[in-house]
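Exam prep: given the inputs below (a chain plus fe (ii) ion), describe the expected output before reading on.
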Amino acid sequence: MGWFTADIKTVDDLFMHSLQDIYYAEHQIQKALPDMVAKASDAELKKGFSAHLKQTKGQIKRLQQAFKKLKEKPKGTKCPAIDGILDEANDIASEVDDKMVLNAALIAAAQAVEHYEITRYGTLAAWATLLGHSDVARLLNANLKEEKATDKKLNGIAKRKINKKALARRKMRPDRVERMENAALVAASGIPAI
Ligand SMILES: [Fe+2]
Ligand SMILES: [Fe+2]
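Solution:
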């Protein structure tokens, strides 16, 4: 079913299509997050991505409950928007060599994902309320709240340190860059430095 085709006749159809769209998107995000955890070299960022992976699994469960309440089987429909955002994130990440600049790129990519999810869940929760599915709206609002909190958290990490560290690399000598990267990798791995 594509957007604006004859398959979508009513707002109920539109709502179901959008629910399937976010269900697909959450699965793609669930697949992409382990790679982001692996690529992040800042301990706090790594932890943040790991926590959001766990949260994403919970969000998928809430969506399954929403389908159940609507007496529908959980089903995804291909969402080119999230595929595009994740493809771009992959492309950018593979083009950035410097670890600190990569952390900044990873946060930017993750925030693009969060903003996508926020707009989808905002609309879905509003439509669920409009259609009289208040219990489904509650589930969607729970996911929306988590996405907003994640976006805020990522924004905080970026502003407080990651962007500054990425900027600082412009003025650094290559040997100092290497020392900083090694220290960051040790911190991110959780293994105490010797
Ligand atoms: Fe999500
Ligand atoms: Fe998210």
